[in-house]
Amino acid sequence: MARVLAPGRTFLTPSDVAEALDVDAKTAAKRLSRWAGQGWVRRVRRGLYIGVPVDATNPAAWSEDALLVASAVWTPCYFTGWTAAHYWALTEQVFRTTVLKTTERVRSSSVQMLDHDYLVLHAGADALTWGLTSEWRGGTRLRFADPARTVVDVLDTPKLGGGIRHGVEVLTSYLDEHDPATLIEYGDRLGNGAVFKRLGYLIEVLELDLPDLIAACQKRISKGVSALDPDGPQGGRRIMRWRLVVNVLIVREGAS
Asked: Could you give all domains of the chain from N- to C-terminal order, each with its CATH number?
């Protein structure tokens, strides 16, 4: 174990063990399985293990930072939705589930791994080339959606932000301190007209004094009718000005 972990590794694969101990892949896999049974490592998923600190009081329940686990499993990836919103203080709510997008193949969007819950969506390679910022944590580079990208990702897929109602909190917090024009720039980059439908409608219903932002959204709404919250209730009132089915009630703060 010391030889395998010596290079500063946290996560282990059979290839790492085979190289460090000069054994074949089958022997390496058996070695990892035995170490897991003894509590020296924990299985993350097939072919990936994590070393357990020697001072862990309960090796079977020990886990690493949820973000570091995600970065090792779904690389390359970036954190978005409510995870990024909390990182940027755009929300005071804390969610147990970690939200990310990855270029890796995603078989299920809802995953539990090492006692952590994840909401994982697939993204094209271009998605990791803009609107991101990096933080080094434990020698690992983590990438987060920047504030504007966080808002646009939530407008694109409201469930990433806990639904459109919670997305309103993220949006209004963003507008308190950040440039509204960046939302238009990023919305153009993302290329989903529903982003502008939801953004324009929310600006109006919240009675925010942003006429330029509303006008920019109006120019960009796509054909067809979209749901305000695709994962919300069925039906709702149609607002043809925004080509939206308003299936979730949005109330301006302070309104009776």
From this structure: 2-61 (1.10.10), 66-222 (3.30.460)
* pTM > 0.85: yes or no: yes
Give the start-end residues of each E strand in the chain.
11-12, 41-45, 48-51, 77-79, 98-102, 110-113, 116-122, 132-137, 140-145, 226-227, 237-239, 244-246
What is the C-alpha to C-alpha distance for residues 182 and 186, in angstroms, rounded to an integer?
Answer: 6
Radius of gyration (C-alpha) of the chain in whole angstroms: 22
Q: Which two tokens stand for residue 126?
A: 């271009």
Q: How far is CA 39 from the centre of its chain?
A: 30
| DSSP secondary structure letter of residue 250 | -
Q: What is residue 120's DSSP assignment?
A: E
pLDDT score of 255 more than 70 = no
Residue type (1 letter), 16: D
Average pLDDT estimate for 231-243? 95
- Which residue, 104, 103, 85, 102, is CA-closest to 94? 85
